[in-house]
Amino acid sequence: MERVPVLKIGDILLVSIQIDMEDQVALQLQEDLAERIVASGCHGVIIDISALDIVDSFVGRTLATIASISRVLDAETVVVGMRPAVAITLVELGLSLPGIRTALNVELGMELLARERAEDDEDRDDDADEPAVTTP
Amino acid sequence: MTAGGAAERIAVTSDQDVVRVRQLVRTVAVAVKLSLVDQTKLVTAASELARNTLVYGGGGTVEVTRVENGRRAGIQIVFADQGPGIPDLDLALTDGYTTGGGLGLGLSGARRLVDEFAIDTAVGKGTTISVTKWCR
Ligand SMILES: Nc1ncnc2c1ncn2[C@@H]1O[C@H](COP(=O)(O)OP(=O)(O)OP(=O)(O)O)[C@@H](O)[C@H]1O
Ligand SMILES: [Mg+2]
């Protein structure tokens, strides 16, 4: 069985899906990524699907599951590079991928992650400075 | 509607066969000159239905045929299994209905993605689904 490689670039894990994945390969990727997030301590995951000419309900569900697992492990996932025809088809299929962050390409995905991380850190600082103040 | 070429048939008994179905449908869709969006829709629908044939039908066959209707070219795909059949078709065709822990979008979504969609199913005998997509 083929395996989708997970690369560490700085403090981000990058997954570029280059093959038409069998269902088992998609499930394996889910597991591999969870392990790499924990082992690397990375807070961001970028999944590049620009090489995929379709995303069906199985792959869509896998992407959503990866995003949820990452979040539980304190990492944000951004799916990048979706082709226009794939987006049109996904919506007509009925999959709107709620809860998945998207960006048009890897670079914009990295910017998004960096921005979110910075905002998170600010929030944390605020909390530390003003422990008595509760924000609604 | 007349058959405009030899049918190609794939036996679906594993994940890999579902990948093969996607590839065959893509090849034929390009050959009959479906638009890129229509190719994407048809391959996605085929992926959903072939996976259902495998998972619920216990395996079966997929047959892809070039068809013609007057001057229009198209593709017909027939998914056949000898599995348990679908007891309540209306229910199975409802968005979100699943007996297998999926998203319940395969059947209903595939129907939206094609031009013609017909199901013949009998409990205890099996299910045959025929879909057609025409060039615009
Ligand atoms: N070939 C088949 N034979 C028997 N039952 C089927 C077949 N295809 C679909 N079904 C039934 O119809 C239900 C709905 O199918 P559908 O493809 O819409 O959803 P799913 O496969 O459960 O989830 P998803 O495709 O979104 O991952 C299935 O859960 C199953 O009970
Ligand atoms: Mg299905």
From TrEMBL, chain A:
Pfam families for the chain: STAS
Region of interest (Disordered), residue spans: 116-136
Domain named STAS: residues: 2-113
InterPro entries documented for this protein: Bact_StressResp_Reg, STAS_dom, STAS_dom_sf
Ranges of biased composition (kind: Acidic residues): 119-130
Name of the protein in its database record: RsbT antagonist protein RsbS
UniProtKB/TrEMBL annotation, chain B:
Organism: Pseudosporangium ferrugineum
GO MF terms held by the record: kinase activity
Keyword field contains Hydrolase: no
Any single Pfam family the record assigns to this protein: HATPase_c
Protein name as it appears in the record: Serine/threonine-protein kinase RsbT
Matching Gene3D superfamilies: Histidine kinase-like ATPase, C-terminal domain (3.30.565.10)
Record keywords: Kinase, Transferase
Domain Histidine kinase/HSP90-like ATPase: 37-136
